[in-house]
Model the fold of this input.
Amino acid sequence: MDMNTLTWLYGKPLCNGKLKANPEDFIVEEDLGFEPDCEGEHLLVRIRKNGCNTQFVAEQLARFAGIPARSVSYAGLKDRHAVTEQWFCLHLPGKENPDLSRFELEGCEVVRFARHLKKMRIGTLKGNAFTLVLRQLTDLADIEQRLQKIVSQGVPNYFGVQRFGRGGNNLVQATRWAKNEIHVKERPKRSFYLSASRSALFNIIASQRLAQGLMNEAMLGDALQLSGRGSWFVAKAEELGSVQARVASGELLITAPLPGDGPLGSQLDAEAFEQSCIAEQTALLSLLKRERVEPARRAIMLHPQNLSWKAWDEATLELKFWLPAGSFATSLVREIMGQDAGEMDIGE
Done:
């Protein structure tokens, strides 16, 4: 997906620059939102890694502990080309802890470990804390002005280019699959292609809301989400006034659909608007219906927490912020630095 076709909330940035001149310029610290129980048959291991992808580290931990690869889980994938900290969960029923001081893997370090009662599954995290360094900046003043706006207004909650694969290949293959030009049997590929499809449709709808200045203007039939919650509801017509006030205060977030096999979730004017935005995307819509993907909703706007920045010099800026699970740091970077996210070559 060409991210340059999506609407910028604050207009296309004036400043160019570079993200990830080296892996240390992109630091991610996973936040589960809870502490280990210190008892149970699962062992949580927090790893700091650089130059390794998540699945590879999980496989190496399984080999080291002498357990099947399926007995090691994690909450989410983290970028290979970055410095990241994340938890891995080893299922060790009736077994002692392995001597993790002997675990050796280039680019990896065991930070801490503790027993836990429950298995950690995909999505079992609250969010991620980011520290980014932007270099070779051409207009630091423009970036800082935009950051001030982001503190109060947020950024579009777009899925980043990573979701669509290198060169947008996941979306290309999804389209070919939809047209029966290829058959996809491998479970990981099916998951990637379906995820890319619904993410692209979400981005299109969210972009159109922004283009029409409706990202914070409630429509009749909008599906709304309590800030910090995953559930959503459709307000009744007589509630629209009070709903709008709650949207303005940040208590409620307007959502857009992640389409699948079923209703979008919105109603009336909002549903008609969403359907019109993706009416031409017949191939992807038919694929999601055919594969019986469950529909969902996602907030249109993203509000980074604890956002702070510090200029190291006139061409270098350090950013710190926290994002809820499922959000992309590139959504923030895209609003402040005029560089195509695909050129950044980053994944989260």
User: Anything to note?
Assistant: The radius of gyration is 21 Å.
